[in-house]
Amino acid sequence: MTGQAAGRRTTRLLHRAREARLAGERTAVAPRAEIDASWDRAVRCGVDPDQSPESRLLEAEEIEHRRRSTALGELMPVLRAGLVSIADATQQIMVVTDAEGRVLWRQGDTGVLRRARDICLEEGAAWAEAVTGTNAIGTALAARVPVQVHSAEHFIRALHGWTCAAAPVRDPRDGRLIGIVDISGPASTFHPATLALVDSVARLAEGELRTRHLAEIERLRAVAAPILCRVGGRALAVDVHGRLAAVTGMAPVDRLPLPKSLRPGRVWLSSLGMCRVEPLPGGWLVQVGEGAAGETPRRVVLDLSRPRALAVRLTGPLGDRTQRLSPRHAELLFALAAHREGRTASELAGDLFGDATRTVTVRAEVSRLRRQLAEVLAHRPYRFADGVEVEVVRPEHGADLLPHSVAPVVAEARRAARAG
């Protein structure tokens, strides 16, 4: 049955089963096993069936930070192509959350989007079971399987007028759950095929991630191959997840277990012993048995002499390389060069924006920069790593330093140059 035909009788039966379950009574009509298990979890978490589904929304900056920090952003074109037109046509909306159940994107029927605000199904809201009880997003997150939740199957009464179907999206590189894709709408829009549709689109998204990963491995292999020929000995190139791209002098492995906080230099790897690790674009070069070698000096030249050609030059174990910089990243590196002892996120926010509360933006920018300069940047606090020599090349006239910048740390340097 679909639509209104499924609505009246099914809803009555669901209501009876739910009320009996909450009262600890037996009933002839039992909920599905996955719903019954979810109700148990909601009770244990202390969720009130009469509560409002409202939750404290994330700030806009935090939402943007989470969007940039997840692979889901890369998959949104696939998800939109597979679900948004159908959601529009069936008076439903597509909702995408992160691995915590926080809504990051939603799109679909305009009227349903407005109605969704009444149940706090909006960007930044929390839909984990511990907050909102049984619902497709939270239950798929808890059970790690696709699930459809209809009408009174929702634990909170305020959601009984809704139907939803959700499926988890995993990173095929390591199987880690990265988020949930969901279709939600008024209970009258229920259709048993919705869950299969949502699950198939989630699998398409995972396939897209797999394809992109293979392309990244190929790019890493192209960069690593000539380096491996030059370094000799036992060495391998792996991506940031430890997946093998290239190897020399030893048997290949599918995946190299890496520490969570891997840094360049000498490191003990349980499967290989003492190694020397150096960053590569998109991964790491691991030289086995290189722990006794002396440290190779690292040098950073921050070239701010030409406003339209901002760059940073690095000298390290793999030779020299130059990287162009955006004005924001040039400001950030200048602030770190001016404070070699290190800066907290709030201090950097003050340096760059004159507002110590803009820590989310600062953390996002530093995270992007560290992907390219991991060998010379450290954190807690943010700083140039110990042993790194830093030189700042300024314009001929110090007052011309980053002329378009309004960052307080740069403005102060320009004032000092004029005064001198």
List the helices and strands and how they pair.
Elements (H helix, E strand, L loop, with lengths): L2 H21 L9 H12 L15 H10 L2 H18 L3 E6 L4 E6 L1 H8 L11 H4 L3 H8 L3 E4 L11 E9 L6 E10 L7 H38 L3 E5 L4 E5 L16 E5 L3 E8 L2 E6 L9 E6 L7 E6 L2 E6 L2 H12 L6 H9 L5 H15 L3 E2 L4 E2 L3 E6 L14 H12 L1
Parallel strand pairs: 11-16
Antiparallel strand pairs: 1-2, 1-5, 3-4, 4-5, 6-7, 6-10, 8-9, 9-10, 11-12, 12-13, 14-15
Helix pairs in contact: 4-8, 10-11
Task: Describe the protein.
Helix content is 40%, strand content 22%. It has 420 residues and is α+β, with helices and mostly antiparallel strands. The strands form four sheets. A five-stranded antiparallel β-sheet has the order 2-1-5-4-3, sandwiched between helices. Strands 7-6-10-9-8 form a five-stranded antiparallel β-sheet, covered by helices on one side. A four-stranded mixed β-sheet has the order 13-12-11-16, covered by helices on one side. Strand 14 and strand 15 (383-384) form a beta hairpin. Helix 4 runs antiparallel to helix 8 and helix 10 (345-353) crosses helix 11. The longest helix is centred in the middle third of the chain and has 38 residues, at 194-231. The model is unreliable at 1-6 and 291-297 (pLDDT under 50).
Compute the CA-based radius of gyration. 27 Å
| Mean pLDDT value | 88
Approximate strand percentage: 15-25%
Structural class: alpha+beta
Read across the widest sheet, the strand sequence of neighbours is: 2-1-5-4-3
- String of helices and strands: HHHHEEHHHEEEHEEEEEEEEHHHEEEH
Biggest sheet features: 5 strands, antiparallel
Strands, count: 16
Percentage of residues assigned to helices: 25-40%
Number of helices: 12
Distance between the termini: 82 Å
- Apparent shape: globular
* Low-confidence regions: 1-6, 291-297
